[in-house]
């Protein structure tokens, strides 16, 4: 998602970079492209609407600093609003008081979930000295399980997988196995999905409820 947004924003800002002055039409056009980029990245519609309204209000209401061009002023406001939208402070990680902490990764196709699983596993293992295990529940993407196993091997993390087309069953069995083996954190790597795909959303809900 962030790679897509970065590319879209870079293209947009390049178009307005050399404008000495941004007209209301220029601003509306820029905000329209920002809105489309956020929606294409599957950001919630209401969040996007609020984001655009805040950027527009600040872009038209704030006095431009003498050290900034109109282009830099818009970039500054967009950057500040993105930070505000994502959260400007870290909330930390809360581990379960009893039993293992179970984390399930969800997201769009190609959003980098599998590589993020490995980065998270390595982070929890090295920074918090946790015993981390991973369940390979992406049965749809070709070679997804092999990719996960190869990457996990490099950081010495166990992976549960099986030749089964039911992600819910795999998740339940994997979690139970790693609970018995004393894992502190169990990460479930799931397939990419869209929120409008009812079957896939039901699947992810079943994994959550049964693990």
Automatic annotation (TrEMBL):
InterPro entries assigned to the protein according to its UniProt record, in alphabetical order: P-loop_NTPase, Signal_recog_particl_SRP54_hlx, SRP54, SRP54_GTPase_dom, SRP54_N_sf
Domain Signal recognition particle SRP54 helical bundle: 1-86
Keywords, in A-Z order: GTP-binding, Nucleotide-binding
The UniProt record lists the keyword GTP-binding: yes
Pfam family, one: SRP54
Any one annotated GO CC term: signal recognition particle
Coiled coil: none
Keyword Transferase among UniProt keywords: no
SMART domains, per the entry: SRP54, SRP54_N
A GO BP annotation: SRP-dependent cotranslational protein targeting to membrane
GO molecular function, one term: GTPase activity
Domain SRP54-type proteins GTP-binding: 100-211
PANTHER family linked: SIGNAL RECOGNITION PARTICLE 54K PROTEIN SRP54, SIGNAL RECOGNITION PARTICLE SUBUNIT SRP54
Name recorded for this polypeptide: SRP54-type proteins GTP-binding domain-containing protein
Organism for this UniProt entry: marine sediment metagenome
